[in-house]
Amino acid sequence: MQIGGWSTDTGTRRCRALRTDAARNRIRILAAAQEVLVEQGWDAPLDEIARRAGVGNATLYRHFPLREALLTEAVEQIVANVADAAEEAAAEEDDPYVALHRFLQTAAHERLAALCCLSEEKAGAHPELAQQKRRMVDAAQLMLHRAQQAGRVRQDVSLEEIIMAIAQLGRPLPGTSWTATDQFGPRLLQLYLDGLLLLPFEVAPPGDESILFAPSEFGRPAG
Q: pTM (2 decimals)?
């Protein structure tokens, strides 16, 4: 259809292309914000976020006129994804340790460390973020409780400790890039998760080396 020499079909395609570009820019900005948040905390510079997203500052401010709106949405997106993963793992896996393992791998991959940048007060000021966090915590706590009740995970570990460990494993060391974290992170995470397992043999209490192995496996204690 032509209107004054202008094709409405062409105009529609251009509008769609602009909307697609805008949506793509928004996704890139949020992904960059999540990375920079994990590295530098709530004071993450917006200039650096724009640079990593490959957009100009004007584009960033067009999508997110307020700094807190950008950072809050970046964290909320992570927590919502992790909450979904937690509920799915709890519902789909028969083995409670496998469910917990699956959830924690997703949490690390999704940059859950960004959540640690928010104080409880700041997170509570955003109802949607608080709701997503509650979903995640409830599902994760259920998986941990089931795994401990089944004798699959040690009793002396809390969900808060696990989340903190995952957050630390999921952030680059000062002065390093994400390349090293992405390369070694999965292996380090697996080593940590192995440490959560309740060992099938008796472990010597601190300072007592008289029991090192299970008699059922090795015939007698070492020593």
A: 0.71
